[in-house]
Amino acid sequence: MGSQWGRDKVHIKAKSEGYRSRASYKLIEIQRRFGIIRRSDNVIDLGAAPGSWLQVIRTLTDGRVLGVDLSIIPPIDGVETIEGDLTDPQIHTRVKEMLRIVNVVVSDASPKLSGQRSYDQARAIALGEEALTFACNVLKPGGNFVVKSFQGTDFSKLFNETKQHFFSVKTYVTKATRKGSTELYIIAKNFVA
């Protein structure tokens, strides 16, 4: 039996262009559409492994780029990484010590999926809420936030929570998202501290 990626054209394109996963194209598309990262921004990527978003971010900013994940992230030139849980207060403290100013927080993190749609969606929403808490804890006023989520009954709670902290909040489904997926991104701009 072959790999699920064997006939995935976006996956094959990503590998041929040197990206670690197809997710790179999602961030590229979000950046083109919403301009969330400016050339001087310091950016944190939560749930960053294997590092495909970090690869893209490094090309978008001359600022500092930091990836946080439970797993080890293979090295990328010009990128700092922390191995740890984004829900751990010690990781929040460590990030603040490393980056005095954080302009953008992004998260393409996803829980390990069980195949039970409602359970997986609830876990994804909880992870999104943790990413939002992290962002609100470290972002400077006016900063931007992008987080992956999934459509479903609990989505409006995360969306409304995000609206309480940012001036502009929208949803977006990328072209690189697999057909039939309920995946979407919350694009939040201009953090209100």
Describe this structure in words.
The chain has 193 residues and is an alpha/beta fold. The chain has one domain: 3-Layer(aba) Sandwich (Rossmann fold). It is built from 6 helices and 7 strands, in the order ααβαββαβαβαββ. α5 links the parallel β4 and β5. α2 packs parallel to α3 and α5 packs parallel to α6. The longest helix is centred in the middle third of the chain and has 22 residues.
In short:
The chain is an alpha/beta fold. Helices cover 36% and strands 21% of the residues.
Number of extended strands? 7
CATH architecture: 3-Layer(aba) Sandwich
- Beta percentage is 15-25%
Order of H and E elements: HHEHEEHEHEHEE
CATH topology: Rossmann fold
Report the mean per-residue pLDDT as an integer. Answer: 88
Helix content: 25-40%
The neighbouring-strand order within the major sheet is 3-2-1-4-5-7-6
Distance between the termini: 51 Å
Tell me the name of the CATH class.
Alpha Beta
Low-confidence stretches: 1-5
Q: Compute the number of structural domains.
A: 1
Q: Largest sheet, if any?
A: 7 strands, mixed
What structural category do the secondary elements indicate? Answer: alpha/beta
Principal-axes shape call: globular
Radius of gyration: 16 Å
Number of helices: 6
In CATH, the homologous superfamily goes by the name Vaccinia Virus protein VP39
